[in-house]
Every structure is written in structure tokens, then in C-alpha cells.
Write a structure and sequence with these properties.
single chain; elongated; alpha+beta
């Protein structure tokens, strides 16, 4: 190919890119997808409890995760405990208290393998 062909294709590419950019910009403005910064309040309410703990209990050979109040269920896992010993099953039926989410994830990860 000669030099004129390269210049022609480069010019067409630049013009096409410019048109696509302008079309995308106007479409974004019409849909009002422009970012408007806002601030989020991430401080906890003074009324909410600050205790983060979790209870891990087994019901019908499946592990469930509850909040620290032992009544609000957070998650139902697919972890089957039928292969565990009777002692471990009894411990899980009573429940295991974990202080934070890091301990919870470590415990669940250890029992999935």
C-alpha cells in the first residue's frame, strides 16, 4: 500500500472515532448519566448496636449464619455437616459464636474444603 492509502484510512479512523465519541457523549447527557458527587454518611447510628458478632449453627445438617441476636438469619450455606463427627455436630447444633466477619469467613472457608 502506498502512503496516500495509509493517510486515507487513518483519516477515516479518526473521523469515525470522533463521531462515536460525540454520539456517546450526547447520549450520556440525554440519559443524565453524568456523575454528580454526593457525600455518604458512613457513621453508625447511635441507636444501632455496635456488636458485630455472628452465630454459626447447624440445622438439618446444613450450616446457617445468624446475627449476634441468634434470631436474625443472615445466610444459609450449602455446607453439609453429615461427614463430621458426632461431637462436632453437637457443637454446631448448639452454635459457635464468632466475633467478626473475618473469623466467620475463615471458619466457613475451613469447613468448605
Amino acid at each position: 500500500m502506498n502512503k496516500r492509502a495509509y493517510i486515507f484510512y487513518l483519516t477515516i479512523f479518526i473521523i469515525g472515532f470522533g463521531i462515536a465519541y460525540i454520539c456517546g457523549l450526547t447520549a450520556g447527557m440525554e440519559n443524565k448519566t453524568v456523575y454528580h458527587g454526593t457525600e455518604a454518611n458512613v457513621t453508625p447510628d447511635s441507636d444501632s448496636p455496635t456488636e458485630e458478632g455472628y452465630w454459626v449453627k447447624a440445622v438439618n445438617n446444613v450450616i446457617f449464619v445468624y446475627k449476634s441476636d441468634k434470631t436474625t438469619m443472615i445466610a444459609e450455606t450449602d455446607i453439609n455437616i453429615s461427614q463430621l463427627s458426632t461431637k462436632e455436630k453437637n457443637i454446631l447444633s448448639d452454635g459457635i459464636y464468632l466475633e467478626n466477619s473475618e473469623e466467620l469467613f475463615k471458619y466457613l472457608e475451613a469447613n468448605t474444603s
